[in-house]
Amino acid sequence: MEIALVIGLLIVAIVLFATEKFSVDVVTVGLLVILALTGILTPKEAFEGFSSDFMIILASIFVISGALSETGLLDKLGAQMIKRLKSETIFITYTMLVTATFSAFMNNTTVTALVTGPVVGICRKLGISPSKVLIPVAYSSILGGTCTLIGTSTNVAVSGYIAQAGMEPLAFFEIFWIGVILCITGIIFILLFWRKILPDYKETSFTEDYKIKQYLSEIIISENSNLIGQRAFKSDLSRWDVRIIKIIRGKDENIPNRRTTLEEGDILLIECPVDDLIKIKESPDLKVLADIIRHEEIQSDKINLIELLVTPGSRLADHSLTEIRFRQNYDVVVLGVHRFKTTVSQKIASLKFKIGDVLLVQGTEESIEILRQSGEFSIIGDFKVNMFNERKGILSAVIFLIAIIAASLQLVPLSIAFLTAALVTILVGAITVERAYEIMNWKLLILIGGMSAFGTAMENSGASTFLAENIIYLLGDLGIMYVLAGFVVLVILLTQPMSNAAAALVVLPVAIEAAELLGSDPRSFAIAIMLGASVSLITPFEPSCILVYGPGRYKFMDFIKTGVPLTLILLVIILLLVPVFWPL
User: Fold this and answer.
1) Average pLDDT over residues 431-459
2) What would the 3-class secondary structure string for 403-430 be?
3) How far is CA 558 from its chain centroid?
4) What is the 3-state secondary structure (H, E, C) of 301-313?
5) Are 344 and 337 in contact (CB under 8 A)?
6) What's the rounded Cα separation, in Å, for the pair 41 and 48?
7) Which residues contact 559 (CB under 8 A, 6 or more apart)?
8) What is the spatial order of strands in the sheet that 286-290 belongs to?
9) pLDDT-based confidence at 549, cuts 50/70/90?
10) 279 with 240: CB under 8 angstroms?
11) Which pLDDT tens digit goes with each residue over 152-162?
12) Mean pLDDT value across residues 331-342
């Protein structure tokens, strides 16, 4: 009965993770509650994963990465290195190498977010479609994470789990050489085939990209209009679901704020549905100057259009424009939103934003500079970097390096080394406590802690033994390598609907049990599964891929065409080399 319940819960979790009907942290906590109430897990077992040292390591990495980003050090290094290159092939090569190097020691999603903006700008300068470069950026950030223990959250989670299972945790550079081989293989594959397999989507105007041209219009406030003297944000126009984007008053152009009042003769650039535009046409208080505004008319010498990428740590993630008072705080207007699989351009004030969303924003140079310096967004195509606090940036890098050396030489435990480094970066002012809490990926931490406990539930219920015996029954006669291959393929498939770390933690208990039944080394199985979870590039559900999906104007099949052959090649390398480095 318990076996059926645990396997049933696993299937439900996979479906919920794939459909995203509920947040992953809510699903994870729900699983723990059910397992605890049914007695499969004790309260201590249910929450043990949240108090383990690998959770401290993950949280510390978020803080340290945030400090390096906040000081502008990574912006400056990445932008300066990438901007030196002119040749297309050399540019792509160098970009992938820089991205992979950063990603070996930082969260790959953060690295992708930092690199995407400058890369798009350089692509425009070189006349290359961003779609030719951004998939390589995402893939190199993912593969770079396979080189060290802290390269991905999956590595840290697997190391923590095998330690709980009685094995030695992974050493800091234990997977370095196989990670380098995987990373170089990925780079070579891209360089050989990027011209043929990567799409070439030419950039179009903003209004075409975001489908906003059909409901941008220009109106003038007539003499004796009731709108005269009304506040822009609370005028009668609001009953028609009209948003005022820009006010032209004489020779001046302004973006309205909460204090702006409307005057006779004001020309308003508005955004509204077509049906409401018809109502405005019929109003005696207003005169429609143009039903359609050209792309050039939205911009001027004083007011510009930019694209913002919502990055990890942004206040907009999981919040709406209204909730964080976006317009009032940043003094810019959001005209449209591009999201994975779709473009949203109406009723966006209440839209809950996700990491990877691209916002089409209009504002003055001053307001855009405020956005740039906030560190919460990546400005696509932007060559400028955040103000570089040289002393704090270099100090943060030195602190991080000392922590890595101390941990790799086993002078202090890894968790203590990184926790100390995170604490020192806060004490020296490289990042504030408030910002550290903001950039923390709490959903990921809850997911990993909860799925670690789910692995214990599989062991307690006998589900891991049941599944392991059946897999051995199906593949055991073919040999240990076929059983190992079956588990690696399984984890690759599971990473499509689930996060990489969650997929690895689901498969690990079964794989370790199978290895023990076969008399093989369970550590070798664990490392192969960990690497398999990290090289799953088939679909764009990995956070790094989602971040480039919008800026690259990609389609779902673009990742399939590139990711499937590359994942198969990397799968073969893992199966060939893991037994060499960690004999079965």
Assistant:
1) 78
2) HHHHHHCCCCCHHHHHHHHHHHHHHCCC
3) 18
4) CCEEEEEEEECCC
5) yes
6) 10
7) 135, 537, 538, 539, 540, 545
8) 252-254, 243-249, 267-271, 216-221, 286-290
9) confident
10) yes
11) 888 888 888 88
12) 73
